[in-house]
UniProtKB/TrEMBL annotation:
SUPFAM superfamilies recorded: Tryptophan synthase beta subunit-like PLP-dependent enzymes
Active site: 124 (nucleophile)
GO molecular function, one term: D-cysteine desulfhydrase activity
Keywords: Pyridoxal phosphate
Domain Tryptophan synthase beta chain-like PALP: 79-367
InterPro entries named among the record's database cross-references: ACCD_DCysDesulf, TrpB-like_PALP, TrpB-like_PALP_sf
N6-(pyridoxal phosphate)lysine found at: 97
Domain of life where this protein originates: Eukaryota
Name of the featured protein: Putative D-cysteine desulfhydrase 1, mitochondrial
Length: 398
């Protein structure tokens, strides 16, 4: 493939003296023009590594009308729902986390790190994506994975995302359901120190969800894609997505604000509460130098009534709805994130339509497909649709 002199210089700078990064090309990052008047040069990433398959498509989300309209028989005022398929950013690198990792892992490469350390739940999509991407870039992944409950058997199994961890040789460290800052982060820092002392390896720590002021650029750039590829302002009034760590929602809300704020961004929380996510978004605004211009409460609508039993926990009714969504639309959603986001979106559409700015809604599918294979859905699958073929004409020939 032809490389410009500048691209060759960048590639050689990061690949010439380390087997960890041999053959990997990263590129200088150029922020879109709409960013530059508002965000200082010091807050803009220097580099990016291309991991995601972009742009992702937008298609109609054929949810049954009775799910989304208070009066399905009405001739006007119906919701028209589309979905942006960020579950299609790749195969094993699928989902929204890949966009964030393009900036986080470029930074790790810039620092010449050998090891990537991150964390998440036992079926974390972020942890799986980070581990696969780290291997793709020649770095060793270590993941701290939280068990669902303190008394859960300390076994990882081989289902869902864990299957891929074992395929790529992730070093998995199982831990109780600890909080990030006071529980997980100290363990990650201890591992970083240990790997340095015992093996001479340099480690790079990525927070849960990749949600920090560097990872947020993944969805500032996703907003640029929505703006210039998907014509979001011409086609839609509202955007809906799941929020679990805050980076994706913050990036979209900030991008929308900086380019005119013509749509309303709604985020359905799958854990924590509105106060927690507003604080995270406000932190991103401060880090980007925008804290004196606006606040999260003005640019992001958090729906925190749809967590159900809690993070990564589902009722039988929710799992049945997960199946119904796939059968009605052909678009699978995962039980942890996008299921609860669709549940929140459709419930608000029926019961509180005034919450939406308009009736043209874009749902951001943030991925999580491998979470469907953790076996929780098995008892809800319709086994009646599978049967041995029987044709009376074949019997008559005998």
């Amino acid at each position: 493939m032809f490389k410009s002199p500048q691209e060759k210089t960048i590639s050689q700078k990061f690949c010439c003296s380390s087997s960890v990064m041999s053959g990997v090309q990263i590129e200088e990052f150029r922020a879109p023009e709409w960013v530059k008047p508002y965000i200082s040069h010091a807050s803009i990433p220097a580099f990016r590594v291309r991991l995601a398959q972009l742009p992702t498509p937008v298609q109609r989300f054929a949810l049954p009308q009775e799910w989304i309209d208070h009066d399905p028989a009405a001739s006007t005022g119906k919701f028209d729902v589309f979905v942006k398929r960020d579950d299609m950013t790749g195969s094993t690198l699928s989902g929204n986390k890949v966009r964030k990792l393009e900036f986080l892992l470029a930074d790790a490469m810039h620092q010449r790190c050998d090891v990537i350390i991150s964390a998440g739940g036992i079926q974390s999509n972020h942890a799986r994506t980070t581990a696969v991407a780290a291997r793709e870039l020649g770095m060793e992944p270590h993941m701290f994975l939280r068990l669902k409950t303190p008394d859960q058997p300390h076994t990882a199994g081989s289902h869902g995302n864990m299957f891929l961890h074992k395929m790529v040789g992730t070093h998995v460290h199982l831990v109780p359901p600890l909080p990030y800052l006071t529980g997980l982060l100290p363990k990650m820092e201890a591992l970083k120190e240990k790997l340095s002392e015992t093996r001479g390896l340099a480690s790079y720590i990525i927070p849960i969800g990749g949600s920090n002021s560097l990872g947020v650029w993944g969805y500032l750039m996703a907003w640029d894609e929505l703006l210039h590829v998907d014509n979001v302002y011409e086609r839609f009034d509202d955007i809906v997505l799941a929020v679990g760590s805050g980076g994706t929602a913050s990036g979209l809300a900030i991008g929308n604000y900086l380019t005119g704020g013509k749509v309303k961004v709604h985020a359905v929380s799958v854990c924590d509460n509105a106060e927690y996510f507003h604080e995270h978004c406000n932190e991103m605004l401060r880090d980007l130098g925008l804290g004196d211009r606006t606040c999260s409460e003005e640019i992001l609508d958090i729906l925190d009534d749809y967590k159900g039993r809690g993070y990564a926990l589902n009722t039988d009714e929710e799992l049945k709805f997960c199946l119904q969504i796939a059968q009605a639309t052909g678009v699978p959603v995962d039980p942890v994130y996008t299921l609860k986001a669709v549940l929140g979106m459709t419930t608000e559409m029926r019961n509180n339509p005034a919450r939406f700015q308009g009736r043209r809604v874009l749902f951001i599918h943030t991925g999580g497909i491998f979470g469907l294979f953790d076996m929780r859905m098995v008892d809800h699958l319709d086994h009646a649709v599978v049967q041995t073929w029987h044709d009376e004409r074949d019997e008559a020939k005998q």
